[in-house]
């Protein structure tokens, strides 16, 4: 057992600040951008850095719960989380039953495909247990953080600002790695890529252009996170929120996304542009068209000036950009794309072969989210997730219409767009959404909805009290008037 440099920082820090659960959540958002690092290495397995503050936060809040501490939004939070909890129960039970029920009857892609090199016969394995543990921890963090963040003395807006600040951190790391790949600037690989359980792809090239993965295991994973930041910043800026650095984070994250040369990132942005009119219609904010026009004009001016300066200073960038464009458009002809497509096709075939029940969580690993989910948790689990997503989206839309622009509405708008960016990217080329910071974002969204619900209830109660006092005053005034008349 060894403790890498990330762990040497996180363990003492979380130990000292254990009694400050809000601070643990801020630390988690920063540690969440280091998924390829390890806080602790046991054998050949590495503990992700975000796990340390997450477990510290969960343990403290659970201790408070045992001592009788309750939070004002518990009822609303649990009502919103209940469908997801049912899906998790189904998933855990299925991971124990399905691999034994369909044992040696179907072929699956294992979790560690690089050690096998192809499909294997289905059988119970350690992946069922390990993935269940991760899922339970992720769900616990989502539910507990959502309940905790309904406290009145917790600033949920500051937590969202920390999320944006973590985006700046990834942008800086991208620029650092780019300078390392192009000019040989020292770059601490041993710090960012200390997890032995990850296959880190930090030397890939797109023709003459280096592909940037920052602190993530591969460029696509980095692009997925940057899409969350980009989607969130664009939406809150269009909504008119004044967040320091949010406007500048849009071009910065877009440039970092371009440096990854990830087809996943480019496709996600394209889908986001198509979804933008739908989001405008759902929110009923037709006034955003003017903001969109200003953002497009400003963005075009910045991009145009940047391209002009770059082409003038570094003329070699033109053929390099052409090479990147060609490699992106010809992605479907690459061997890696064909391999991933085959994995998705095989995974979808498992749905029919298991009568829609799936092969069990942790038994199969596809290339994208939907085939991976359907092949493991089956149609029942997929329907459960759709119900959860639909209820959450409906509650979020109702909440944002209930309150004027403020901290809760900012978090709802920012988290909805960030989660949309992550889900779209995962549907394109990620088998799971297993990072802890992603589940914290869901918890923040649920907490914001619950806080709006609490505010609405308080308003109703205050109005009722005011009406009662008016009626009481009228009842006292009428006898006086009658006495004077007599």
UniProtKB/TrEMBL annotation:
Membrane spanning residue stretches: 45-65, 77-98, 133-150, 162-179, 191-209, 221-242, 254-280, 292-314, 369-389, 410-431
Protein keywords: Membrane, Transmembrane, Transmembrane helix
Protein name, per record: O-antigen ligase domain-containing protein
């Amino acid at each position: 057992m060894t403790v890498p440099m990330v762990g040497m920082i996180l363990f003492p820090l979380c130990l000292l600040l254990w009694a400050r659960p809000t601070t643990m959540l801020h630390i988690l958002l920063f540690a969440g951008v280091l998924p390829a690092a390890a806080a602790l290495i046991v054998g050949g397995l590495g503990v992700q850095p975000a796990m340390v503050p997450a477990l510290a936060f969960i343990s403290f809040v659970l201790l408070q719960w045992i001592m009788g501490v309750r939070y004002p939004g518990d009822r609303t939070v649990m009502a919103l989380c209940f469908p997801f909890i049912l899906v998790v129960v189904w998933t855990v039970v299925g991971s124990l039953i399905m691999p034994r029920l369909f044992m040696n009857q179907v072929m699956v892609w294992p979790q560690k495909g690089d050690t096998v090199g192809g499909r294997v016969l289905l059988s119970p394995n350690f992946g069922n247990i390990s993935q269940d543990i991760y899922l339970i921890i992720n769900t616990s963090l989502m539910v507990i953080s959502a309940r905790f963040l309904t406290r009145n003395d917790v600033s949920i807006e500051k937590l969202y600002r920390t999320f944006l600040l973590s985006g700046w951190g990834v942008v800086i790391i991208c620029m650092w790695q780019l300078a390392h790949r192009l000019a040989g600037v020292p770059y601490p690989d041993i710090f960012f890529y200390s997890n032995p359980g990850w296959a880190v792809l930090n030397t890939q090239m797109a023709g003459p252009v280096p592909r940037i993965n920052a602190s993530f295991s591969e460029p696509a994973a980095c692009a997925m996170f940057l899409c969350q930041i980009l989607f969130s910043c664009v939406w809150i800026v269009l909504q008119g929120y004044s967040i320091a650095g949010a406007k500048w984070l849009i071009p910065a994250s877009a440039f970092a996304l371009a440096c990854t040369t990830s087809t996943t990132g480019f496709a996600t942005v394209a889908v986001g542009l198509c979804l933008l009119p739908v989001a405008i219609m759902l929110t009923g904010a037709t006034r955003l068209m003017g903001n969109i026009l200003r953002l497009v004009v400003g963005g075009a001016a910045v991009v145009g000036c940047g391209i002009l300066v770059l082409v003038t200073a570094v003329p070699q960038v033109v053929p390099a950009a052409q090479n990147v464009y060609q490699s992106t458009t010809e992605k479907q002809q690459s061997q890696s794309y064909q391999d991933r497509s085959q994995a998705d096709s095989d995974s979808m075939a498992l749905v029919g072969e298991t009568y829609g029940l799936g092969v069990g969580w942790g038994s199969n690993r596809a290339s994208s989210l939907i085939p991976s989910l359907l092949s493991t948790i089956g149609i029942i689990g997929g329907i459960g997730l759709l119900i959860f997503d639909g209820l959450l989206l409906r509650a979020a839309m109702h909440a944002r219409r209930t309150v004027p622009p403020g901290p809760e509405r900012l978090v709802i708008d920012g988290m909805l767009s960030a989660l949309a960016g992550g889900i779209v990217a995962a549907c394109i080329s990620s088998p799971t959404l297993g990072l802890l910071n992603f589940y914290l974002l869901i918890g923040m969204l649920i907490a914001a909805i619950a806080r709006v619900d609490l505010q609405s209830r308080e308003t109703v109660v205050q109005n009722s009290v005011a009406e009662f006092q008016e009626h009481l005053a009228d009842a006292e005034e009428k006898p006086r008037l009658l006495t004077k008349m007599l």
